[in-house]
């Protein structure tokens, strides 16, 4: 990335306005308003889809606000397109993104450490390195944590054998290793959770692209998808695509056919479903039940569902004022827990925070979402939605799906749109600009 | 948020506050502000002038459901479930469904635990109500708002297997100690046609429901259930049994066409 080579000193020289970006307060570099005091201090926790976008857009809307982004990782690996990596279509490095643009172009202070605690009444955040930072507004976008107590036998140790790969990175690599180690003719099992969970079409895209890999390298293999639901996102389209591209390699077993996994024995490579059926696997991917990232618990913004209820117009927590929760951690249904939604919600939050710090009312909120899924490198499908607020609740005001029975060139175009979408959202969120247009 | 959890949470952490203050604190006061059941005819008819208790009963439904065709519901009443003191009936209502009566259950001391879990249909966002009656005629009421979102991500699928209607599954404990409470799981493959929807040909699909389910341990009734149109396809029930001695658990389903299925499961007691 070009901007990665610019040092801070060069940047200041380049801007020619060193005074305006001089270190201010405990947060280091920050913009200052004309009288020298920042227009407000905002801390963003989490540098994923929601957090990175929020940090950038607050600075874009008002550079005089001091923004610090707390994120332990120097590189963020996206779950979107991690299924392409699993299918052998993309290198891991191509789904990794850095924070150079946020640091250098937008003057966000990125602190690579974990936020350990939040005090909502003192309005402070404690970092793992011991520092305590004060804020006027706090944005939480910590994503998900796995509920390790929700599925018998599935703990952290089990996940080292039967990965979840529902946070991209080492878990994704581990799953790929398991798939590569599997012999032709083996059985791969994916266990999908009940709603709500991160990325409703994710498990179905994942088995599709694993089927793509099997079809090329291990064509005698089987995929068994055990599901805790009777209906899933883009179901008709997925089923049609699976049949057309993979014959009967993929078998889906829904809730009413005893598809809900209640016990995992990772060592034995075995899962048990609700009514006592045992299934043996040569490779397993357990997508377990989830909850908001732990920092949301620390901040006191979650309810007993494990997720954070928010005021729809602004995504400010219903439980603690001046804390905004975006992305997967929030309760935003009917918006799905998607990267696209997290990015969209973050922009609404950025606008609301900038307005509030400026003593203005927030604008009326509207959101959009498109989830593309790839069934194969040249077979894409999508679902789109437009959302607004009615009677204090988020509602879907328009939306639609790819048609069933569409011709091959239609599916091929949607596969290309999926790549364009990925490249665009990564550019918007992290400033990554050199991603390939080709698929696999 | 479940009522049971709220109640427990209240006892543990905010015992010093008034209930109203505590509920506001939890941000869940809306469900309690106006008790819908007081104005809801089928519940008024059932109570017949009696004043119910609103504690000692909990209704657990997801706050927000993305698939209104199958919403998990658990109702639990505090009860020792002994001969002199047990919950005898539980009734479930969906206030804004075409037929508000979801299901009714008759429990006995052999049920061991006054808890029923099932899956229901919700047409839209609405209040769901559970009413329980003790053997001495006291009523308990719990009510919760359940939001149902139209989610474009979800397409409806026919979830039952047309070739194997009335095929049942069950799971019972392998072995229980005398007087120990064990969990029983049942599910039967069945469309639960409401008689309210059209088929592909534009004709109304005739109503066809499983309307009765019984569980007996030898000659003792453990549970009786009556289902209405708001029970999801493939009726699913989770309940309990407390055997005093070994016996055969008979699970029996009947549908409106007269079709019936029975499953027998030995229950070992040590
Ligand atoms: C297989 C798969 C495929 C997917 N495909 C798509 C897709 O095609 N399109 C789409 O739109 N979405 C997709 N998603 C969903 C998408 O990944 C999530 O919805 C999105 O990542 C949510 O953004 P977020 O900001 O809430 O969380 P994340 O993007 O996960 O970011 C959270 C960040 O917070 C950091 N963090 C957590 N706790 C702390 C703390 N205490 N202190 C500091 N930092 C912290 C984490 O390190 C992480 O970097 C997919 C998901 C999966 C699993």
TrEMBL record, chain A:
Keywords: FAD, Flavoprotein. Residues 365-430 form the Flavocytochrome c sulphide dehydrogenase flavin-binding domain. GO terms for molecular function: flavin adenine dinucleotide binding; oxidoreductase activity. Residues 41-145 form the FAD/NAD(P)-binding domain. Residues 172-288 form the Sulfide dehydrogenase [flavocytochrome c] flavoprotein chain central domain. InterPro entries: FAD/NAD-bd_sf (IPR036188), FAD/NAD-binding_dom (IPR023753), FAD/NAD-linked_Rdtase_dimer_sf (IPR016156), FCSD_central (IPR049386), FlavoCytC_S_DH_flav-bd (IPR015323), FlavoCytC_S_DH_flav-bd_sf (IPR037092), SQRD (IPR052541), TAT_signal (IPR006311). This is Cytochrome C.
TrEMBL record, chain B:
The lineage of its organism: Bacteria, Pseudomonadati, Pseudomonadota, Gammaproteobacteria, Chromatiales. This is Thiosulfate oxidation carrier complex protein SoxZ. The keyword Nucleotidyltransferase does not apply. Residues 173-264 form the Sulphur oxidation protein SoxZ domain. It comes from the Bacteria. Residues 1-33 form the signal peptide. Residues 46-153 form the Ig-like SoxY domain. Gene3D superfamilies: Immunoglobulins, SoxY domain. Keywords: Signal. NCBIfam families: SoxZ_true. The keyword Phosphoprotein does not apply. It comes from Alkalilimnicola ehrlichii. Pfam families: SoxY, SoxZ.
């Amino acid at each position: 990335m070009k901007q990665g080579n610019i040092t801070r000193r060069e940047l200041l020289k380049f801007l020619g306005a060193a005074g305006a970006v001089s270190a201010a307060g405990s947060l280091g570099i920050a913009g200052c308003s004309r009288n020298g005091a920042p227009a407000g201090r905002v801390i963003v926790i989490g540098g994923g889809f929601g957090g990175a976008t929020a940090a950038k857009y607050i600075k874009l809307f008002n550079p005089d606000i001091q923004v610090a982004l707390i994120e332990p990782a120097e590189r963020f690996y996206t779950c979107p397109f991690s299924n392409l990596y699993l299918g052998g279509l993309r290198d891991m490095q191509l789904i990794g993104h850095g924070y150079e643009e946020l640091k250098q172009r937008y003057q966000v202070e990125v602190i690579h450490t974990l936020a350990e605690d939040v005090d909502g009444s003192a309005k402070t955040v404690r970092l793992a390195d011991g520092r305590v930072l004060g804020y006027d507004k706090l944005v939480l976008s910590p994503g998900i944590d796995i509920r390790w107590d929700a599925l018998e036998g599935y703990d952290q140790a089990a996940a080292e054998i039967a990965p979840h790969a529902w946070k991209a990175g080492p878990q994704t690599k581990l799953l790929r290793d398991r798939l590569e180690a599997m012999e032709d003719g083996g059985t791969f099992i994916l266990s999908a959770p009940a709603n709500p969970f991160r990325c409703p079409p994710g498990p179905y895209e994942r088995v599709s692209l694993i089927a793509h890999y099997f079809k090329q390298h291990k064509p005698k293999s089987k995929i068994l998808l055990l599901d805790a639901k009777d209906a899933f996102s883009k179901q008709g389209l997925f089923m049609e695509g699976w049949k057309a591209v993979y014959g009967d390699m993929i078998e889906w077993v829904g809730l009413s056919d005893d598809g809900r996994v209640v016990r995992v024995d990772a060592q034995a490579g075995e899962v048990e479903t609700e009514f006592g059926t045992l299934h043996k696997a040569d490779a397993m991917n357990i997508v377990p039940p989830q909850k908001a990232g732990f920092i949301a618990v620390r901040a006191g913004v979650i309810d007993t569902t494990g997720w954070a209820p928010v005021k729809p117009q602004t995504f400010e927590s219903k439980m603690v004022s001046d804390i905004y929760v975006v992305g997967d951690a929030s309760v935003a249904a009917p918006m799905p827990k998607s990267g696209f939604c997290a990015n969209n919600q973050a922009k609404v939050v950025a606008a609301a925070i900038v307005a509030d710090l400026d003593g203005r009312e927030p604008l009326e909120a509207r959101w959009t979402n498109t989830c593309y899924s790839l069934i194969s490198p040249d077979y894409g499908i999508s679902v789109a939605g437009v959302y607004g607020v009615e009677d204090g609740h988020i509602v879907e005001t328009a939306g639609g799906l790819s048609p069933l029975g569409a011709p091959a060139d239609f599916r091929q175009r949607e596969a290309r749109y999926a790549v364009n979408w990925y490249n665009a959202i990564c550019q918007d969120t992290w400033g990554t600009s050199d991603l390939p247009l080709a698929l696999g | 948020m479940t009522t049971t959890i709220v109640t427990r949470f209240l006892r543990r952490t905010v015992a010093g506050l008034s209930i109203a203050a505590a509920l506001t604190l939890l941000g869940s006061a809306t469900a309690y502000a106006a008790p819908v059941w007081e104005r809801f005819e089928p519940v008024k008819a059932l109570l017949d002038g009696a004043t119910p208790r609103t504690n000692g009963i909990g209704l657990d439904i997801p706050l927000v459901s993305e698939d209104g065709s199958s919403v998990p519901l658990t109702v639990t009443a505090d009860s020792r479930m002994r001969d002199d003191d047990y919950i005898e009936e539980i009734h479930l209502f969906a206030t804004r469904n075409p037929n508000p009566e979801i299901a009714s259950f008759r429990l006995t001391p052999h049920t061991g635990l006054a808890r029923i879990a099932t899956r229901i249909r919700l047409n839209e966002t609405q209040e769901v109500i559970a009413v329980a009656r003790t053997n001495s005629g006291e009523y308990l009421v719990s009510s919760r708002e359940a939001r149902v979102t139209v989610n474009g991500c979800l397409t409806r699928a026919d979830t039952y297997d047309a070739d194997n209607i009335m095929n049942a599954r069950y799971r019972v404990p392998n072995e229980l100690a005398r007087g120990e409470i064990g969990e029983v799981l049942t599910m039967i493959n069945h469309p639960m046609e409401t008689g309210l929807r059209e088929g592909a040909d534009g004709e109304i699909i005739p109503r066809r429901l499983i309307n009765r389910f019984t569980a007996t341990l030898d000659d003792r009734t453990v549970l009786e259930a009556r289902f209405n149109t708001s029970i999801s396809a493939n009726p699913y029930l989770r309940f309990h049994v407390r055997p005093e001695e070994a016996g055969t658990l008979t699970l029996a389903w009947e549908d409106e066409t007269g079709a019936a299925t029975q499953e027998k499961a030995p229950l070992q007691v040590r």
